[in-house]
């Protein structure tokens, strides 16, 4: 018994001997599991989901290293960042992520979001800042992903891409 996505269809394989009643219940449960797995793999879509994700990331990766949990005053998707993946204004505690990140894997968006959260603690790209960002297990992988993405577009990454 298994379920998987094939293009725009969820395929559920079940034994032939299963009753119709059990089949309906099992198929419904398996479809829900596939959809839940897919939802976990996607980055947050709305600003409310982005704020919740920022809270989760700060609690998991920054708070254990600090005596407090960094709290942004707001986190939002923006369409006016064509050169940067994200930005943070420490004085207002506002974080903005470029809408260009939305189709990327959730772990890449999480990296950019954690990078911006770290700026709430350390405004510059100091050693302390990079140690905080480095607490995210996929940090180097995500940086490589973003660099590869830019290279695929004929562009070169620099430190100001995520600021």
Secondary structure elements and pairings:
Layout: E1 2-6, E2 9-13, H1 20-41, H2 47-62, E3 74-78, E4 86-89, E5 94-98, H3 106-119, H4 127-133, H5 139-152
Helix pairs in contact: 2-3, 3-4, 3-5
Order of strands in the sheet with most strands: 3-5-4
Number of β-strand runs? 5
- Could you list the spans in which at least 5 consecutive residues all have pLDDT below 50? none
Q: Span between N and C termini?
A: 47 Å
Give the rounded overall mean pLDDT: 88
Any key phrases for this structure?
alpha+beta; 3-stranded mixed sheet; two-stranded antiparallel sheet; 45% helix; 15% strand
Brief summary of the model shown:
The protein has 163 residues and is an alpha+beta fold. The protein is 45% helix and 15% strand.
Descriptive notes:
The chain is an alpha+beta fold and 163 residues long. Helices cover 45% and strands 15% of the residues. It has 5 helices and 5 strands, in the order ββααβββααα. The chain has helices at 20-41, 47-62, 106-119, 127-133, 139-152; strands at 2-6, 9-13, 74-78, 86-89, 94-98. It has a 3-stranded mixed β-sheet. α2 packs across α3 (106-119), α3 packs antiparallel against α4 (127-133) and α3 (106-119) crosses α5. The radius of gyration is 20 Å and the shape is elongated. The mean pLDDT is 88.
């Amino acid at each position: 018994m298994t379920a998987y996505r094939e293009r725009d269809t969820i395929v559920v394989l079940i034994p032939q001997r299963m009753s119709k009643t059990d089949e309906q219940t099992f198929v419904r449960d398996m479809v829900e599991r596939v959809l839940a797995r897919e939802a976990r793999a996607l980055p947050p879509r709305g600003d409310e989901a982005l704020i919740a994700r920022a809270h989760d990331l700060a609690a998991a990766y920054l708070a254990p290293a600090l005596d407090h949990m960094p709290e942004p005053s707001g986190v939002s998707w923006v369409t006016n960042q064509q050169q940067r993946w994200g930005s943070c204004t420490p004085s207002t505690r506002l974080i903005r992520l470029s809408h260009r990140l939305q189709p990327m894997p959730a772990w890449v968006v999480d990296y950019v979001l954690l990078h911006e959260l770290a700026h709430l603690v350390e405004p510059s790209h100091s050693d302390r800042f990079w140690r905080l960002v480095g607490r995210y297990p996929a940090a180097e992988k995500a940086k490589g992903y973003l660099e590869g993405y830019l290279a695929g577009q004929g562009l070169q990454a620099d430190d100001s891409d995520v600021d």
